[in-house]
Automatic annotation (TrEMBL):
Domain of life: Bacteria
Xref: InterPro entries: DUF4832, GH
Species per Swiss-Prot/TrEMBL record: Catenibacillus scindens
Name of the protein this chain belongs to: DUF4832 domain-containing protein
DUF4832 domain residues: 232-437
One Pfam entry name: DUF4832
Amino acid sequence: MAKKWVAAGILAAAAVIGVYFWNMFFYSEKKVFTQSGEVFGNPLMGYAPSAWHEELSQDIQLLYVDVTWRELEPEKGGYDWESIEEENQFLRWREEGRHIVLRFVCDIPGDEPHMDIPDWLYEETGKDGQWYDMEYGLGYCPDYNNEIFIEGHRRAVEAMGQRWGGDGLVSFIELGSLGHWGEWHVNTSVGLPSIPDSDVRLEYILPWREAFPNAMILMRRPFKEAAEYGFGLYNDMAGEADSTRTWLSWIDSGGVYTQTGEEDALAAMEDFWMTAPSGGELTSSVPMETLMGEALDQTVALTRASHTTFLGPKIPDRENVPGYETLLENMGYRLWISSASLKPRFGGSRLSFTLENDGVAPFYKDWPVCVYIQDGRGQIVEKKKLDFRLSQLLPGEKINLSVKLETHVLKSLDSGMTVSLGIVDPMTGKDAVRLANEGTQNSERFVLFSGQ
């Protein structure tokens, strides 16, 4: 009899162990998720209106700031940070977790004679630029080859970097400095001198790389320096068919830069958007009601062909323009989770999920992707950063990710435990990216599993 009881005990123990190992290796919780059809903005993408706006819709996460040298340094070595930062609300945007597109400008044609460089610089450079009155407007074109001008520019950029280059607020720099509106072209047809040759242009590029090492730099044209340093590109004629197609042809084929006649000034950069952003501004040459109305399909097609991540400061009015959301839907990244599974493992759990990008561009920064385990009171009991570079997820692609958790999640779901995912903005230390999943309205952290 004793032997029978021992045998029965062994069988019972084996059954318990069998169930344990069955649960350990075969039991799992799985979910399939649905993508949301809602259109919304997200960090580092979308519309970028001027930073002085007081009222903004929630989808605006980028602001555009242009600074003239005259504004920046009214007295030699004396930088007017307070006026610029107050007008453009730097403190507000930093606190709200919104980011800035910056452009430094030395020549903006206007309605009256004026200079966009400081008076002291005008005197020190021997007044060797040229005043103009032409179809673009009135203004003053500096001599960009002047060594005093070049050295002063280097110091100004260095100062901006020391002031604004440390915390990620300035995330994109549209490389300006040269030409009308900082667009690296001058109207030579009225006798103005052309943009400098490559060696001199490089002196206007390198200071930005040193001063803003964490910002992404974009150039107006695909200069060979843009290809060499991995810059992005921007198009200030976005939506205008002929100009945008010409811009895209430069990107596809490179070639001659007509301002200087250099045959190899422009480089073929057809895949630049895979690692660096495409930006710009909607054109002023076509009425907004046309761009977003009868020509909307063309505007969207050109935006997609450009793999555009952001546009501004000229943007449509959300309240009055039906095409606003359509164009926004066709800019930047659109990340979502299509499926996830939880499985027990020795000493914890294994979370696996599939992350997809249905946008037209990558998310260009490697912000931390984190998994959070919270108890029934909402307290974080475990946080894991994934070993994964977010910038490598290209449009139309998906990636399967997995992470080992120390918590026995499946045992605790019934007590209200949740498993969620967030993408953290290093500037704020907070989850900031909204996934394009159903159920993520007004939420920057997506719940994968919950016992509630």
